[in-house]
């Protein structure tokens, strides 16, 4: 096979592109695979800007991919961390209800969690909540003792090491710009030169819809970027947060609501909110791209979503601009928390797939087309579930591609 020709090219070296390559090489060690990554390092986008939670699978509708992938994903992630000496912590999580309506929603979440076989999940009353989280105000909570934390960049580095040891190549600074099919091969033009492959796996995260379109595929959705902003809790106030503390989520939205998390870097964060970003990699409020914004604003689905959810959008924008509003939401869980306890934190941008009707896609979406598999929607708990998603994509590859 010529030097720049491969059996499979994977676009995107985030946690999903890496886990997929790892699984494929475990099953088919002879495959010649290259990962093309536009950044100058792996795992710098969603994978490097998330809450670092190993989710346990509570929220997801039984039977959904999220439910299946997350529960199995948590177990496989913990095993992988143990086997590869990646630091992680099984810290446990509480979802706190502060009124009767939320208690009813909590019961639905408990049912879902139990249907999904979430290990150790149980409802706790006000007294037990006070023992678990002395500074939290709530009338009941759902306790998930197995929820953990890890740095997903650490995980990705180990995936990358393993795929390279198994013979795959990772080409950094190689933004994929176009595809062309001829002579039974797919030719890929990138910033670092031309590659060719028999098959493509699209794991481009925030750009997965564009990569699909570049291949002539209509994915039936657009990625709308939603920035999630975090604050850090000052060291001397970290004792207010013992576990991970979440509100009861609004069932109409795929986001979990601003929450408190410990992370493996050794600090406590509050966030993320969910604000429309004006650039796909718009980590700062001032980041703007004419091209990205044009694509968002000329997409009919965006306006249908806005017509329906404008109140929530406005609330999120207001909360993003006014720290006092953010603090008020946090005080619903921890009344003692003050504005002065919050320092500037980081941010992440979610690749939220929205369909032509303006619906925010909640579940994972993976599509097969001729000689290609496209991971089109991999929201949270995508990092937790990465090994299971890798397995699923590998199954689809085996069904779709002629691998011999
Ligand atoms: C704020 C936030 C919080 C989250 N919290 C959690 C959590 O606590 N737990 C959890 O399990 N999940 C969480 N998630 C979800 C999780 O981070 C994602 O599911 C996961 O990182 C998706 O990985 P990916 O590889 O698909 O995408 P990415 O990590 O975005 O990787 C895609 C890669 O493709 C590359 N790329 C894009 N276009 C091109 C191109 N044209 N050519 C070459 N390369 C390209 C990008 O540079 C990037 O490296 C969170 C996400 C966000 C944003």
Write the layout of secondary structure elements.
Layout: E1 5-11, H1 15-27, E2 33-36, E3 53-54, H2 65-83, E4 88-90, E5 93-97, H3 100-115, E6 122-125, H4 126-132, E7 140-144, E8 148-150, H5 152-165, E9 169-171, E10 176-182, E11 185-190, E12 193-202, H6 208-214, E13 221-233, E14 244-247, E15 259-262, E16 268-271, E17 275-276, H7 290-297, H8 300-321, H9 323-331, E18 342-355, E19 365-369, E20 372-377, H10 386-400
Parallel strand pairs: 1-2, 1-12, 2-9, 5-14, 12-20
Antiparallel strand pairs: 3-8, 4-8, 5-7, 6-7, 10-11, 11-12, 13-16, 13-17, 13-18, 15-16, 19-20
Flavin-adenine dinucleotide (FAD) binds next to helix 1 and strand 18.
Number of strands: 20
Mean of pLDDT: 96
Could you tell me the strand content as a percent range?
25-35%
Q: Helicity range of the residues?
A: 25-40%
Q: How would you spell out the order of helices and strands?
A: EHEEHEEHEHEEHEEEEHEEEEEHHHEEEH
Number of helices: 10
Structural class estimated from helices and strands:
alpha+beta
Shape: globular
In whole angstroms, how far apart are the ends?
A: 13 Å
CATH architecture of the domain at 1-52 and 151-220 and 363-404: 3-Layer(bba) Sandwich
Distinct ligands, ions and cofactors found in the model: flavin-adenine dinucleotide
Main β-sheet: number of strands, strand sense, barrel status?
8 strands, mixed
Radius of gyration: 21 Å
CATH class of the domain at 1-52 and 151-220 and 363-404: Alpha Beta
Low-confidence stretches: none
CATH topology of the domain at 1-52 and 151-220 and 363-404: FAD/NAD(P)-binding domain
């Amino acid at each position: 096979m010529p030097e720049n020709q491969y059996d499979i090219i994977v676009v995107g070296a985030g946690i999903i592109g890496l886990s997929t390559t790892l699984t494929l090489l475990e099953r088919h060690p002879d495959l010649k695979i290259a990962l093309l990554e536009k950044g100058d390092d792996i795992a710098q986008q969603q994978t490097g800007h998330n809450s670092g939670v190993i989710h346990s699978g509570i929220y997801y509708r039984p039977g959904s991919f999220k439910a299946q992938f997350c529960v199995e994903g948590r177990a496989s992630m913990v095993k992988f961390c143990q086997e590869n000496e990646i630091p992680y912590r099984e810290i446990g999580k509480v979802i706190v209800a502060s009124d009767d309506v939320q208690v009813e929603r909590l019961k639905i979440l408990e049912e879902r969690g139990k249907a999904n076989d979430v290990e150790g999940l149980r409802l706790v009353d006000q007294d037990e909540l006070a023992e678990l989280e002395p500074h939290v105000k709530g009338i009941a909570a759902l306790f998930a003792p197995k929820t953990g934390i890890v740095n997903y960049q650490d995980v990705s580095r180990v995936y990358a090491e393993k795929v390279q040891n198994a013979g795959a190549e990772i080409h950094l600074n190689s933004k994929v710009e176009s595809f062309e099919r001829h002579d039974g091969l797919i030719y890929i033009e990138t910033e670092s030169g031309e590659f060719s492959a028999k098959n493509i796996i699209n794991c481009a995260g925030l750009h997965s819809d564009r990569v699909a379109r570049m291949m002539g595929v209509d994915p039936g959705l657009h990625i709308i970027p939603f920035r999630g902003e975090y604050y850090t809790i000052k060291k001397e106030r970290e004792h207010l947060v013992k576990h991970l503390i979440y509100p009861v989520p609004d069932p109409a939205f795929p986001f979990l609501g601003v929450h408190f998390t410990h992370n493996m870097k050794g600090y406590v964060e509050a966030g993320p909110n969910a604000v429309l970003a004006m650039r796909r990699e718009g980590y700062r409020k001032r980041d703007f791209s004419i091209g990205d914004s044009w694509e968002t604003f000329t997409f009919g689905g965006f306006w249908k979503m806005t017509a329906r959810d404008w109140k929530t959008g406005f609330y999120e924008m207001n909360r993003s601009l006014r720290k006092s509003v953010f603090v008020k939401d946090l005080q619903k869980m921890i009344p003692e928390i003050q504005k002065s306890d919050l320092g500037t934190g980081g941010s992440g941008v979610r690749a939220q797939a929205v369909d032509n009707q303006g619906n925010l896609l909640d579940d994972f979406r993976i599509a097969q087309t001729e000689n290609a598999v496209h991971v089109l929607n991999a929201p949270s708990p995508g990092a937790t579930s990465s090994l299971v998603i890798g397995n699923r994509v590998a199954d689809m590859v085996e069904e779709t591609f002629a691998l011999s």
